[in-house]
Amino acid sequence: MNYSEKMLRDDALKGKTIVVTGGGSGLGKSMTTYFLELGANVVITSRNMEKLQSVKAELEAQTGGKVLPVQCDVRHYDQVEAMVQSSIKEFGSIDVLLNNAAGNFISPTERLSANAFDTIIDIVLKGTKNCTLAFGKHWIDKKETNKVVLNIVTTYAWTGSAYVVPSATAKAGVLAMTRSLAVEWAKYGMRFNAIAPGPFPTKGAWDRLLPGDLKEKFDLAKKVPLKRVGDHQELANLAAYLVSDFSSYLNGEVVTIDGGEWLKGAGQMNLLEEVPEQMWDMLEMMIRSKKNKS
Ligand code: HXC
Ligand code: NAP
Fold this sequence. Notes:
By secondary structure, this protein is α/β, with parallel strands linked by helices. The protein has one domain (about 15-294): NAD(P)-binding Rossmann-like Domain (Rossmann fold, 3-Layer(aba) Sandwich), CATH 3.40.50.720. Helices cover about 45% and strands about 15% of the residues. It has 11 helices and 7 strands. Strands 3-2-1-4-5-6-7 form a 7-stranded parallel beta sheet, with helices on both faces. It is globular and about 55 Å long. The chain starts with 16 loop residues before the first strand and ends in a 5-residue tail after the last helix. Bound molecules: hexanoyl-coenzyme A and NADP nicotinamide-adenine-dinucleotide phosphate (NAP). NADP nicotinamide-adenine-dinucleotide phosphate (NAP) binds near residues 197 and 199.
């Protein structure tokens, strides 16, 4: 057996319907794939409907599961409410909300416009708040219980990190929301947990955090005591456990899966201090040129 094998038993998520924000790419897509393999129905949401449609076709063919793609910008509460309604219309009820959608890029904070800072806060913190509030209110109103909210944060939610300050600020808020609602809404039959992944290569993250030759310059595997990056299946295994009934007594926890990275050197992007000031124009141009390509 090795770490890229699938962990839970067949049908472990049978009968569950799971909403994965940002489910059309990267880690969201990997978790979605495993949920489908374990028998769940999955609603995948993001801003890009074309991408979601193609992922639906790919994953339905690969797993035999059922995927509903819903276009929804998590920054807008009206779009989130509409997404809740279309999910319910298709599947009757929703059991799990996985807040995975995020926006991020590296930049010295003094180079950020107010709108650039807001954009990250709005996707990560306000987006998670919008989805959590919309589903939470619905479940409370309908008196539905045994519901799970799983939030994807990162280890700099508690260490902070230079050069990704809006993301660190927003993820810290998401972690506070996770722990707060774990207590407040337990009485309504909801559990709240979070995963803090270390480096798991995805196009979305790597284009924005390690543009150009930063990939070679800052080999993230070297920062990890275990000397490797994460495998998507390792994260999917953990997520599947946390949304399943096997974790019914786990509430208010953040599970770090980073090979020991943050303990070795807290502040994931602090290493960007080594980038000379004059390189930032070029790096910014490279990041901007990747817009809408992930
Ligand atoms: C400075 C920038 C910038 C950059 C954009 N902006 N890119 N400022 N440096 N590289 C500014 C813009 O000029 C604008 O401000 C504001 O930010 C909003 O930009 P838009 O392009 O209009 O926003 P939008 O189209 O909404 O795109 C959002 C985005 C984009 C976050 C900028 O990158 C995106 O769509 N990202 C989604 C996917 C993603 O980020 N995935 C990575 C997650 S990785 P002005 O003032 O000009 O209007 C992650 C990992 C954590 O979270 C830990 C990893 C180890
Ligand atoms: P990714 O592929 O870029 O995922 C981000 C997703 O969010 C995309 O599918 C994107 O879809 C969606 N999204 C962005 N803005 C949105 C908005 N306004 N409304 C709705 N959806 C939006 O990157 P990833 O690496 O898989 O990241 C997934 C999660 O893991 C994030 O929460 C990230 O912070 C976290 N994380 C990743 C790592 C890592 O090493 N990869 C480490 C720690 C934490 P559209 O562009 O189509 O909208």
